Structure formats: C-alpha cells, structure tokens
Amino acid sequence: KSSHGAENVIVKAVIKPSDVEGLSNVDTYAMFSHISQELSIISTENDGAVTRVLRENETDIYIVAPFTSLPAADYRGDLNGLEETIHLAALGCVDMINGGGAVVSLEQYKDAEEEKEGGGKAAAATTTIDGAAVKIGVRGVGRFACVASRAPSSVWLIEDDEQQQQQQPDTLRASMRKLDFTQREHIAASSAEKMYKFLEMDLPEPARFSSHSDDGCGNKQSPSIPVRTLLLQWN
Q1: Does the N-terminal or the C-terminal CB of the chain have fewer CB atoms within 10 Å?
Q2: Which of 70, 115, 64 is nearest to 94 (CA)?
Q3: Predicted confidence (pLDDT) per residue in 101-142, tens digit
Q4: Is the pTM of this model over 0.70?
Q5: What is the four-CA torsion angle of 142, 146, 152, 158, rounded to 10 degrees?
Q6: DSSP letters spanning the chain
Q7: How far apart are CA 199 and CA 186, in angstroms?
Q8: Which ranges of the chain have pLDDT less than 50?
Q9: Backbone angles phi, psi at 102, to 5 degrees
Q10: For 161-183, how does the pLDDT look when each residue is reduced to its tens digit (9 = 90+)?
Q11: Nearest residue to 68 (alpha-carbon basis) of 118, 15, 107, 21
Q12: What is the greatest pairwise CA distance in the chain?
C-alpha cells in the first residue's frame, strides 16, 4: 500500500511485435527495454510476447526490431566457413528514448564488382570488402546496439554519405573508421534456445554536421546529425 493507504497501482502489459503498425512481417523480432535494458527474442510462430509489469510512477519504452536474413556468402560464393545465413536485427541508439529511430536503413553490402555483374550501377565502394557484409544507415551518436546470429569480425563507420561516395568512390577507404564493439551471448528461449550475440558499439560525433537549414518560416534550424553508414563484416 502507498503512504496514503491506497493500493499501489500495478499495470501489466503484454507486448507483441504486431502491436507496432507498419512493422515488417517476419518470423523473429528483437525487443529491447529502454528502462530495464533487457533483450528478448520473440518468435511469432509461437505467438511470442513480452510481459511487462509497471508499478506506480514507472514507465517503459520498447524497441521492436525485425530480424533480417542475409546470405553469408560473398559475391564469389565463398562461405568462408560461415553458416549459410546471417540473422541480424538493428536496435539503434539504445540510450535514446526513440532509439530505433536511429536506424535509417539495413541492407546487404554489395561492392562495385557485384553491382556491375548484376547489371546495375557501380556501387560507391570500389574497394572490395572480403566476406559477407551488411551496411546500416544510422543517424545518431552514443551507444548503438544490434543482435546477430554470429558476431562480425569487424565493424566500420563510414562518415561520407552515399551521394558523396558515388561522386568520389576512391575516398571510401579514407572515410572508414574501425569501431570497437563488445558482445555478450543471449539465448533465445523462443527459438529452440538458439544462441545470439548482443553487440554494442559507440557512435562518435560526426566529423562534420550538416549546415543550418531554414524551416520555411525564415527561422534557422540547428545543424542536424547526418546519416552515416555502419559496415558490419564477416570473414
């Protein structure tokens, strides 16, 4: 009971990925609590959900991130001893209230040779990245987290945006900065006790901010953090 004699209010919520409108429809999701910092791997095949109990004056926000399945083989077809598929969910800047909003895009990395073979435009990176790689478009600074079925061998931060890379592809390697990351194991009880890696890295402030912009009413807005690229590499 509270000091006023009334019963403490307890709210019990069952949270499912389907509660998020417009979320990608996949079989497995990562859910991360902003307050407790707890990670849950949820399988929709088992109607998985997170149960959260809030007491008086407590709040919480969850990041819900779908897992993306990416081929581990590089464009040469070499698996490099990896499993055939890498499963990855990008949580975002987990110390932010809307941490998931820091993730702008997530896709398999393709270098120039692969793009040319596929008949498309040559990618910005003329420097070949050995092994499998994933690029994540990010906007933010601070602690960034993602969950993967296998830890990457290296993580790189690319400062230049994609347009600048296309205009000056030879500058890619010069704009790449290797990031340290930590990892810890997480067993997903909902996925036949499959082992995942919870990865954390620190996103530094960008080398440069975008210029001041006008809000349309003649007011100058503060410089914004540009979208940068995280490159996760497995080899």
Answers
A1: N
A2: 64
A3: 999 999 888 754 444 444 444 333 334 455 678 999 999 999
A4: yes
A5: -40
A6: --TTSPPPP-EEEEE-GGGSTT----SEEEEEETTT--EEEEEGGGT--EEEEE-TT----EEEEE-EEEESS-TT---TT--SEEEEEEEEETTSTTGGGGEEEEEE---HHHHHHTTSPPPS--SPPPSEEEEEEE---EEEEEEESS--SEEEEE-S-HHHHHHSGGGHHHHEEEE-EEEEEEEEGGGTTEEEEEEEEEEPPPSSPPPPEE-SSSPEEPPPPPPEEEEEEE-
A7: 10
A8: 1-3, 5-6, 75-77, 79, 112-128, 164-165, 167, 169, 171
A9: -75, -15
A10: 555 445 454 545 557 899 999 99
A11: 107
A12: 73
pLDDT of residue 57: 86
CA distances from 210 to 139, 140, 203 (A): 12, 13, 17
